[in-house]
Amino acid sequence: MLRRSIPTPAILALVYLSWILIGTTLLWLPISSVDSLSFNQAFFTSTSAITVTGLSVINIGAELTLFGQIILALLIHLGGMGLMTFAIVILSSFGMPVTLSQRRILRDEMGLTTLSGLVDLVWAVFKIVILCELVGAVLMSFIFVPEFGWSKGLWNALFHSVSAFNNAGFSLFSDSFMGYHDNPLILLTAATQFMIGGIGFIVLTDIAVVKKWRNFSLHTRIMITGTIILLVSSVLIIGLLEWTNPNTVGALPNTAQKIYAVMFEAATPRTAGFNSLDTSALRDSTALFMMILMVIGGGSMSTAGGIKVTTAAFLLLATIAFFRNTGRVRAFGYSIGLDQGLKVMALTTISLFIILLGLFVIIATHDFDFLDAAFEVVSAFGTVGLSRGITGELNLIGELVICVIMFLGRIGPLTLGVFMMSKTPPLTKFPEGKIFLG
């Protein structure tokens, strides 16, 4: 009876929290670090890994042993693919039945509305993840193996491939990919991986199976269109803002390197977290634009965070519908119902509340520049991992606040809202009233 009374979103949150604590324990072991991590450091790192954020209070490459780095990579893999997704793969591999309650938890984790075909979809997701990570590792090894040797080079390639595809942003290099800002193979491989991981497994399945645009679902059409628009506009805007900045793009020696850097920096705020330029040296206007991209994030049922591209698209379409006075939100010949609009409104409201409350606490307890603090909080909520250099300066309160924001950003504000409304009141008809707006 007790298990039935707990809503599935709450169970999902508890599953994530349990794995964060397991990861904390493993990273806290003396074998995981060169000099034993404090509990706070282990907890922050584990939370950042499970939520595939990438913010870190330690130097991953220098302070974690190989064992610790392997644990971190496993946590990233679990968090990116989804803990319940991984659990279903294990259960079905051993021929164990997947119960209805497990399917419901998986449905909530993936952000789906149906229980049909879930196990088949999970296996498709698992195959896509493994294939993309292996291909990425092979491509990166062409650079890392000659530089570091076979063992270290292959491990660097595999770790960064896992981190890139899962949009985690963790790097074994203290400056992320700044040392490879002139290497198109590393930048393009990583960017391709986190864009594939961030577009969503539903879209990838549609592309692989359906193949024709006219047969794609509405979700796939909006995601592909929205992603292209965001990527192109991001390249243009960041390029215009940073092209002459002597501390970032302007310092690069030739046009080709500048183009690679701009393309990479335009893609990474969509929750990837890697950087090839000094994020703290970006112009304020660029940092603000990146914050907008971080809030939007990637696609539903993906390794990315944020409010999702489809949510942002619906907000825009609803605004257009209001000014056209059509009374309905339409896209690609489809009509989107009012219930979807209410979910979008709830998601956006809760997201803004979390960001503003987190920013208030950080500002109240630290002597940070406002833009740096806002960038950090938005990065944590969008599970991005980009920082303007203040993560290591967080005090205990700040670390806890960022951990909570990363956690909420990963499990989803809407899931939190469903958890808070565990008991649905009976449908009651009230007389219609009017309020004045604007």
Topology:
Elements: H1 2-5, H2 8-28, H3 39-50, H4 60-63, H5 66-81, H6 83-93, H7 100-110, H8 118-148, H9 150-165, H10 184-199, H11 201-209, H12 218-242, H13 255-267, H14 284-296, H15 309-324, E1 329-331, E2 334-336, H16 338-365, H17 370-381, H18 396-411, H19 413-420
Antiparallel strand pairs: 1-2
Helix pairs in contact: 2-3, 2-5, 2-7, 3-5, 3-18, 5-9, 6-7, 6-8, 8-9, 8-10, 9-10, 10-13, 11-12, 12-13, 12-14, 14-17, 15-16, 16-17, 16-18, 17-18, 18-19
Describe this structure in words.
With 438 residues, this protein is mostly helical. It has 19 helices and two strands. Strands 1-2 form a two-stranded antiparallel ribbon. Helix 9 runs parallel beside helix 10 and helix 11 crosses helix 12. The radius of gyration is 22 Å and the shape is globular.
Query: What is the domain total for the residues?
Result: 1
Give me the number of helical elements: 19
Largest sheet: 2 strands, antiparallel
* Category from helices, strands and their pairing: mainly alpha
Low-confidence stretches: none
- Number of DSSP-assigned strands: 2
Instruction: Please state how the strands of the largest beta sheet are arranged side by side.
Output: 1-2
Query: What integer value in Å does the Rg equal?
Result: 22 Å
Keywords:
438 residues; mainly alpha; two-stranded antiparallel sheet; 19 helices
Question: Can you give me a brief rundown of this structure?
Answer:
This protein has helices at 2-5, 8-28, 39-50, 60-63, 66-81, 83-93, 100-110, 118-148, 150-165, 184-199, 201-209, 218-242, 255-267, 284-296, 309-324, 338-365, 370-381, 396-411, 413-420; strands at 329-331, 334-336. It has 438 residues and is mainly alpha-helical. The chain has one domain (7-419).
